[in-house]
Amino acid sequence: MGSSTSDKVFAALETFRIELPSWGFANTGTRFGKFIQPAAATTTEEKFSDAGQVHLLTGVCPTVALHVLWDCPAGVQSTDEIKRFASRYAVAPGSINPNLFQDQEYKYGSFGNPDEAIRQRAMLHTKDSIEIARRLNSRDISFWFADGSNYPGTANIRQRKEWFTDGLKMAHQQLSPDQRILVEYKPFEPAFYHTDIADWGMAWLLSRAAGPQAKVLVDTGHHYAAQNIEQIVAWLLSENMLGGFHFNDRRYADDDLTMGSIDPYQVFRIFHEIHFFEWETGQRADIAYMVDQSHNLKGKMEAMIQTVTMAQQLFAKAALVDSKKLATAQKNCNLVDAESALQDAFATDVRPAIQEWRESKGLPKDPMEAFRQSGYLERITKERAVKNSHNVSSYA
Ligand code: RM4
Ligand code: MN
Ligand code: MN
User: Fold this and answer.
1) pTM value?
2) Ligand 1 site-directed mutation target among 22, 141, 144, most atoms within 8 Å of CB
3) I need a surface site. Which of 278, 307, 318, 349 has the fewest CB within 10 A?
4) What's the pLDDT at 1?
């Protein structure tokens, strides 16, 4: 290491870890159809294998997020098997995502369903999910609800808010002291008139009501197009309510495109708010960085490697902002200097320093190239092609 740039990049990468989603390795599509990839993972074991491979090449993805319905079909009984996969493929279970949207019963909602029996069923699945997390030593139980309505007047919005508050409070009571609940928000889709947890304010109020171990999860695709996401991040940080991220990029809606592919400066600005918070407070922001992408057209593993590489670059660039200079410029209302502090960091090419860091860790300098040379893709394509030709189900 030589320059202060590479020192800063090294320091930033030392702590930065990013979690991959199991569902990102399986076949998915759009509501119009699906293009099956012969190499896609067809079982939970294959998802672990693929995630393990990405971790092997990048060294920064030690955990994989699981969706209970897709990855733990036998509920808590699935945990022994998952532990075996984790040790076999050297990647640990990460956040546990209850699935409260796919069963037929959830047509009119889960926690917000007017039918008490269905709300109870959702609670049972929630309790199981927390128990699964406990057995797998997973810290975070990450909730995304599809609940909402399509037409004005069809749902009692205030009543549903109460049901959500009760449900999340009950869930919170089940947590071990080291576990957390993450509450994700989304303004639309699948419901198009109202979503029960539509924005960060709603997620925040519900998390606060649930208890101290509940925090907000920001999925970068879950905002209206012009929303200032980094401001939300800054507010949540200052209230100690930011629990984690689901990273992806978008042009229009919840497009789940590769992180940083459309607007890398957006991700940079989010990371900058985190670095700046840490610099000012001297505290580590306790945040779970996760990817929520499922590629339909790109090769799934290449897309994940590309994502991780981009995440490292943007995180490292944001660490280059001269916080002291920025704080002074802000205080003196030197607008151009303040703005330049961000722009100069963003314009810096951090790739050589990242390559040096990888080499210092015994990792391949170029994970994509290493993946292409490894023969892994050819092997799984051969092994899975037949299975995939019959497997047209979604996600799982
Ligand atoms: C949602 C949301 C959730 C993810 C599901 C599959 O849009 O982003 O986090 O679990 O999709
Ligand atoms: Mn998400
Ligand atoms: Mn989403």
Assistant:
1) 0.97
2) 144
3) 349
4) 43
